[in-house]
Amino acid sequence: MKKATIIITIISILVSATTYVIIEHTNEIMKDITLNESINNSIIVANTSIESTIDDFQDDSEDGYNYYYEDIELDQIELVEVNECMSFFLENESFENANNCQDKIVNVILKENGEVGFIKSITGNMLSYTKNGVFIKYNYLKDLIASGKSKNELKEKLMLAFINRYRDPVNLETTYQNNKATFFNYISKEVYDKVYREYINTFLKSYNEIHDEEDVEAFYQDIYFKAEKLNKHSEYWFYTFWKRRELEKNDIVIYTILKEIDDYYTNNKTIN
Amino acid sequence: MKKVIYNIILVGSLLLSIYAIYIWLYYEEYNVTPVEQKLLVSASFLSVLGLIIVYIFQKKGYLNYKFIHFLLFLFSVVFLFGSSFLLYTSYDTYVKRSNTQKTNGAIEIMTHNTSTYQEDEAQIYLNLKDNRNRLLGYENFFIETAQNYNPSDYSYANTLKTTLVNQLATKKGTQPYWDAILSNVYAFDSIDHSHKRGGYDIMYAFSNKAYPHEDLGDTKDMDLINQTSISQYWQTELLEINREPEHINSYWRNNKAFLYTFFSKSRYDALCKKIVDDLIAIKTKINEQHNYKAFYQKYNVTDPVFLTFPNRKFVKSYDYSWPFSFWDRRFEEGNDDVVFEILKEIQMHYRN
Questions:
Q1: Cis omega before residue A169 (within 30°)?
Q2: Whole-prediction pTM
């Protein structure tokens, strides 16, 4: 038994030595593998994220949105008032203005989502999201604000009711100053250049064109005449826009704001 | 001492070997971590050490039992099993890892559409879309709640009444507050600026006890809702107001400007003059009676003798008994002097 014991012990020592060597070798392999796996994983992750964003930007058909639902806690008074307004809306496809229905509902949304949130929702609504790019729906604002708007859906009405609050130049200026930093951070330069730049430049260009004229009134009269006679209201909308703003006395404020936005994204000027 | 050390080494090595056997037996269910691997290795080596020490001791003749030989043999076998097990797992791992490395040797280059977006640009678009969807969500919320809304669950009229009353209460101590209440009390018609109630008649509109308020049901008559809301509110105020003399005084001082503004001289003459004059005349007469306090203490308007004070003829000269009971009630509340002074002040104000 002694011999057997000794022999077995020696074999075991040899086996342990081999095991030790193998373990050390495995650790080295593990180091290499971890490095390669992490590189591969990051490429896979990067590719999947781009893949998923492509999927997210599949062509939205105008009426084929997925179903979205938000829940708002309403107290009893709000519940009754909002629902009375909505019952009227569902029956008549318009709001009972006597009871300030549009404003009541907008206020409920503002309480839930905030002013900035609502503005972000409007900016989001103005765009089409497709595989080939994200674009402004060029006539969207015109259709929304113009009196003969094509869609009479609830959200268009609510957006318009909200926008109407900013026809007052003082309100507009204050809100802009308070929130411009948020929005400059929200929209990056790349996004601005791709999506919004051309649109805003159209407004700036038309304003400059109008005010380069010697006789602004005559210019407007000419434009309106052409628009009426030849039914070219859509074509001249960017000019008649400024006339309407002049009547509301907020044209200068709006031009200043648009110019400031354009300057910020062109020259990355720091905002005061 | 040596025996103790020897025993400890023996027992320690035995335990480690048992642990090695345990792991080996449950290998399948047991994920051997690198720590445990190292533990097994150490266990095995310690067993060997124990073996060697035991063998040396045995050589030196400290122990000469056959039992020791047997134990030594057992130890070596355990050591063999332990190290073989470790060898097996390590080799297995090594093989697996090598295979993994072989298949992922080359890094695949993924091509992608050049018109896709940068990571952060995509994020902004997703945010914009998210915000758009939120508005859609609200739209659906409103439409769905309206479709599930059952008006009979809530009384619109009563809800509106609550709103109106809350709004009114916030305006306390302002002219609009008093305008609203006094117009309601005197039932002013906003169209032809005439009042439908005046003078003593307004007392019929209010009770001196709290009755449950009438439910508005589902009337849609906005005027009715307005009227009922304000009058129910004022009824509650009248019953709940603090009637202590100091408070009556301060309440009057704080609000008299509004009342004077509401009641022009002509309005005052038409609606209030008679009552004020009657109350003052009667109180003056009663004050002349030296025992009026005792009388009021003892009797009130439900007692037949009440209307004989100060004398029957005087009481009968008025076509209503209300001013007499008025002063009794004020006496009981302790504010009759204060109210008397206020009424005299009003009378003086409108005399000029």
A1: no
A2: 0.52
